[in-house]
């Protein structure tokens, strides 16, 4: 497939890396509606991860409308896949996590929030 890369040194759980990579590939247009994904077994072998991990990610992506599974045929990017790949809740969650990291870094380095906001305002 080549669209998914798992970094064993990344502390992020494998299933989260895989889900994020598949969502990113769909959102970026590297995978399109109707594209067939590798089977669970094929992707597990390719990435050298447990097949249950891949099955868990595929099931979650199907539950959220990103993928659709056709029994006996395989898993495909759904027609709504691109829109579903980046739901608003995911965007908000990632933004909150980013802001938390920025604030933690600012605190560690001695910057105040008002200084950060002022600097951001200058760049906008």
Structural class: mainly alpha
How many β-strands, per DSSP?
2
**What about the largest sheet?**
2 strands, antiparallel
Mean of all residue-level pLDDT scores: 87
Percent range of helical residues: 55-70%
- Written as H for each helix and E for each strand, in order along the chain, the element string is HHHEEHHH
Poorly predicted spans:
none
Q: If you compute it from the alpha carbons, what radius of gyration comes out, rounded to the nearest whole angstrom?
A: 18 Å
Strand content: 5-15%
Overall outline:
elongated
Description:
- The protein is mainly α and 124 residues long.
- It folds into 2 domains: 14-85, Winged helix-like DNA-binding domain superfamily/Winged helix DNA-binding domain (Arc Repressor Mutant, subunit A, Orthogonal Bundle), CATH 1.10.10; 88-123, no CATH class.
- 59% of the residues lie in helices and 6% in strands.
- It is built from 6 helices and 2 strands.
- A two-stranded antiparallel sheet has the order 1-2.
- The chain starts with 13 loop residues before the first helix and ends with a helix.
- The relative contact order is 0.12.
- The model has no long low-confidence stretch (mean pLDDT 87).
Keywords summarizing the entry:
two-stranded antiparallel sheet, about 120 residues, mainly alpha, 2 strands, 2 domains, Arc Repressor Mutant, subunit A
Give the SSE layout.
Blueprint: H1 14-27, H2 40-47, H3 51-63, E1 67-70, E2 74-77, H4 81-85, H5 88-109, H6 113-123
Antiparallel strand pairs: 1-2
Short note summarizing the structure:
The chain is mainly α. 59% of the residues lie in helices and 6% in strands.
